[in-house]
From TrEMBL:
Residues 207-226, 528-554 are annotated as: Disordered. This is Microcin C transport system substrate-binding protein. Gene3D superfamilies: Dipeptide-binding Protein, Domain 3, Periplasmic binding protein-like II. InterPro entries: Peptide/Ni-bd, SBP_5, SBP_5_dom. It comes from the Bacteria. Residues 110-543 form the Solute-binding protein family domain. One of its GO terms (cellular component) is outer membrane-bounded periplasmic space. It comes from Hyphomicrobium facile. Keywords: Signal.
Length: 643
């Protein structure tokens, strides 16, 4: 996940079961694993995950690229643009499994316990857990991390909203008390907590300045994870080196992982020069996110000679809702009919054919590619939940299955244009034909107009009863989406909508996004198999006006708030799935976004210097986490490059 979506911070809600799970929960049982979708695969005595090579060799360097720039090494503040890879510096109380959705295993904590009503969770810390300066990780560090994160970043304030307090209950024990019972997700939410050193952040830097988790910094921070920062060239390059005496390297949850001695990220302003460097061997791996490039740009010599490998690795995870997101704070987007019209005017099939070689599937749910996606018409428990908010949701929620428009045959798009026009007119917008200046009209052209031999240039304008034209600006921060948006802009202009594209740098983009200074942006809402508290930050009314929250659309919908609470306090898996179906359906029928597409693979190209486990994890290819440098392959590639 991108840093916006900080490593594995998408949490979930469902039937919470720990290993072992033979008796009802009580605080005397301290469990080494937590899962939101059933019993964890591995018990307390497991030796290593089956998706790693426990004897993987250590060594080598992996060189990657990052887009744009960065100005801070503090991943916890909401300020600044974070450097790539900062998650490598920090461990959490529990760590996620890359092969089991919504499942965590003990890391800094040795185990976790909780009462039957899920009103609290207590973590027993490992005495051997330590920071990279050798100091032990204490309950005070855990409490400091929790309290400070909530202060410095609105994301954490929402994420930990239901966690009332953290307190030390033993030399190696921390208890988190919740403000309500019955929220089965909260133990795992707290388990995701990264722990930072209190003594470091309460101290001063080399220049005598007081450190602050709230501020940006280019001072390499002290961590407790498998890597530390080796070197920094601000905004251009950052390198991490493996910590040889990393305290957790022999734990079952870490064995066979983090095998590279050095991880480097070099920053580029755009994709083209970065890809050229990959082709010549200056970069070692390339994650491809452009279907057209995948289909047409991998015919260079190194790949033809077998020095570079190219493969699409299947992954089994909930497809994120990537979309054009409307800023509902803007007057022109407050009518859902306008938003629906925009979806009708987006010709996905044409885009998929011309730009993506028909490789993508249209996203038709906020929880696509999973059993959480709403299908058919609501029934059973889902219908009960929706009936509680019947007067607050579109009537189509109960009568019609939501579908994206499909332009499968000639004439389909014309039909959708007509539907869009009717919606816009019903919302108070009318098309007018208006005279416009023609910059290409010279002296002779003007004379002809004057004497009636030619007519003035006209264009369509969509205006409301105040005479205001419908205008929209697509805000982006790179060239990837420009080629996708420009045809959309042309289609919008056919109905008189004045649409433009504004491409800005990363820092300006983040500032404008955080301050909600945009009309439409491209955003992605990643989900897990067990959605929960994070839905409040995505769609909740309380987060709509919080700068930096993930509710970029600005949704303030009482029905959504009520359904999200049903998710957060679901009694079991069935209840969770029903509530998620209800949420999915209500979000879709409110047309808050124009959905994009998804692809159930990770497209990877890499120089053939790697070894990897016989079985890869199901949720990700895990290249930088579980692969390793094969010395013989690396030697052969180096020799071939020299020829």
């Amino acid at each position: 996940m991108q840093m916006r979506l900080t490593p594995f911070m998408v949490a979930a809600l469902a039937f919470l079961s720990f290993w072992p799970n033979q008796a009802s929960a009580d605080e005397s049982q301290c469990r080494n694993a937590m899962s939101l979708v059933g019993a964890p695969k591995y018990g307390p005595d497991f030796k290593n995950f089956d998706w790693v090579n426990p004897d993987a060799p250590k060594g080598g360097t992996v060189r990657q690229w990052a887009n744009g720039t960065f100005d801070t090494l503090n991943p916890f503040s909401d300020k600044g643009v974070k450097a790539a890879g900062l998650g490598l510096l920090y461990d959490s109380l529990f760590t996620p499994s890359l092969d089991e959705p919504s499942t965590q295993y003990a890391l800094i904590a040795e185990c976790a316990s909780y009462p039957d009503d899920f009103s609290s969770v207590t973590f027993k810390l490992r005495p051997e857990a330590k920071f990279q300066d050798g100091q032990p990780i204490t309950p005070e560090d855990v409490i400091f991390s929790f309290d400070e994160f909530k202060k410095v970043n609105p994301f954490y304030a929402f994420y930990y909203k239901n966690v009332q307090k953290a307190e030390k209950t033993g030399d190696h024990e921390v208890k988190f008390t919740f403000d309500k019972a019955g929220n089965r997700e909260l133990p795992m939410i707290v388990g995701e907590l990264n722990v930072v050193p209190k003594h470091y952040w309460e101290g001063k830097d080399a220049n005598g300045k007081q450190r602050s988790l709230a501020e940006t910094t280019v001072e390499p921070p002290l961590g407790n994870g498998p890597y530390k920062i080796k070197s920094v060239d601000t905004s251009r390059k950052i390198s991490y080196e493996r910590v040889p005496d990393y305290w957790a390297k022999d734990l079952p949850v870490m064995r066979g992982q983090q095998n590279f001695d050095t991880l480097e990220f070099t920053y580029y302003r755009d994709r083209t020069p970065a890809f050229e460097d990959f082709k010549t061997g200056s970069l070692d791996i390339w994650g491809e996110n452009q279907a057209a490039a995948w289909a047409t740009q991998y015919n260079f010599d190194a790949l033809k000679k077998g020095l570079v490998k190219k493969e699409a690795i299947p992954v089994k995870r909930v497809a994120p809702m990537q979309a054009f997101v409307f800023n509902l704070r803007r007057q022109q987007f407050q009518d859902p009919r306008v938003r629906q019209a925009f979806n009708l005017l987006f010709n996905f099939e044409e885009t998929n054919k011309k730009l993506f070689f028909d490789l993508y599937q249209r996203v038709d749910s906020y929880f696509a590619n999973s059993d959480l996606a709403a299908t058919g018409l609501p029934q059973g428990r889902e219908l009960e939940i929706l009936n509680e908010v019947k007067d607050e949701v579109p009537p189509e929620v109960f009568t019609t299955e939501w579908k994206n428009p499909v332009n499968a045959q000639e004439g389909d798009y014309r039909k959708h244009q007509q539907e869009a026009l009717k919606l816009l007119e019903a919302a108070g917008w009318k098309i007018r034909s208006e005279e416009v200046d023609d910059p290409s009209c010279g002296t002779w052209c003007k004379i002809k107009k004057t004497i009636g031999l030619s007519s003035a240039s006209t264009a369509r304008a969509l205006r409301n009863d105040k005479g205001e034209q419908m205008t929209v600006e697509f805000l982006i921060n790179g060239d990837t989406f420009e080629r996708i948006i420009l045809p959309y802009v042309k289609d919008l202009s056919a109905l008189g909508i004045k649409a433009t594209v504004r491409n800005v740098d990363d820092a300006q983009y983040k500032q404008r996004e955080d301050n909600r200074d945009f009309d439409i942006i491209v955003d992605t809402f990643a989900q897990s198999n067990s959605p929960g508290n994070e839905q409040r930050d995505f769609w909740g009314s309380a987060s709509a006006d919080k700068p930096g929250s993930r509710n970029t659309a600005g949704i303030k919908n009482p029905a959504v708030d009520k359904i999200v609470d049903k998710i957060v306090f679901a009694k079991d898996r069935d209840d969770l799935v029903a509530a998620t179906h209800a949420l999915d359906r209500v979000l879709l029928w409110n047309n808050y976004v124009v959905p994009h597409w998804h692809y159930p693979y990770e497209r990877l190209a890499y120089w053939d210097i790697f070894g990897r486990p016989a079985k890869l994890p199901s949720q990700t290819a895990g290249l930088t986490q579980v692969w390793w440098v094969d010395a013989d392959k690396a030697k052969a590639v180096k020799a071939a490059k020299g020829k």
